[in-house]
């Protein structure tokens, strides 16, 4: 996926993203960090086609057989339907395509719930789940149609520290197994370093690329990786880039 000098200006004149250029390899895990309002979430909307580009282009190396399955999205909140069961929530994208598609996709939905430790909760409702379990349902829904690209907009930001750590490790396991292309938005430098192959550091609005940091830590990674000197060095470098970018634009 190639972002070629992408710019997004809204009708009110606000430039959210300016001259954003990045080449994301197939199967690469890329995190984007930056201050609030720098255009991180706007980038995901541009990838999804929910917002038109002002200038530039976003292209893909390979096209999916079903273009609707090119991307899957995990939001900041699970956005589950309270009156649906867990299984029905995972199957919402299929249900919108008709009963036949829902029946065809149910085995896949149950497989994903089992993979995420939710097999015994398929017939429960969202209010019966913890926040972390609800977010797992959102991840299963995003993976239902086996998208080539998984987009994640601060998916663990509202969770407590222990649940966030567990879901981070779950996500690493999913990525190690499927090697999907992941674009992950976060405010957490530690989270970005632990998960990613590269971390894109953005400037304050208008969002530009301040630096792209290679994360050459060995895989598979664990929570113990956070305590290594190399992890600390990378996290400190990203913090320094963020601080410098904010001073330059102040």
Automatic annotation (TrEMBL):
Pfam families: ABC_tran. PROSITE patterns: ABC_TRANSPORTER_1 (PS00211), ABC_TRANSPORTER_2 (PS50893). InterPro entries: AAA+_ATPase, ABC_transporter-like_ATP-bd, ABC_transporter-like_CS, ABC_transporter_ATP-bind, P-loop_NTPase. SMART domains: AAA. Keywords: ATP-binding, Nucleotide-binding, Transport. GO terms for molecular function: ATP binding. Signal peptide: none annotated. Residues 1-229 form the ABC transporter domain. PANTHER family: ALIPHATIC SULFONATES IMPORT ATP-BINDING PROTEIN SSUB, TAURINE IMPORT ATP-BINDING PROTEIN-RELATED. This is ABC transporter ATP-binding protein. It comes from Nocardioides hwasunensis.
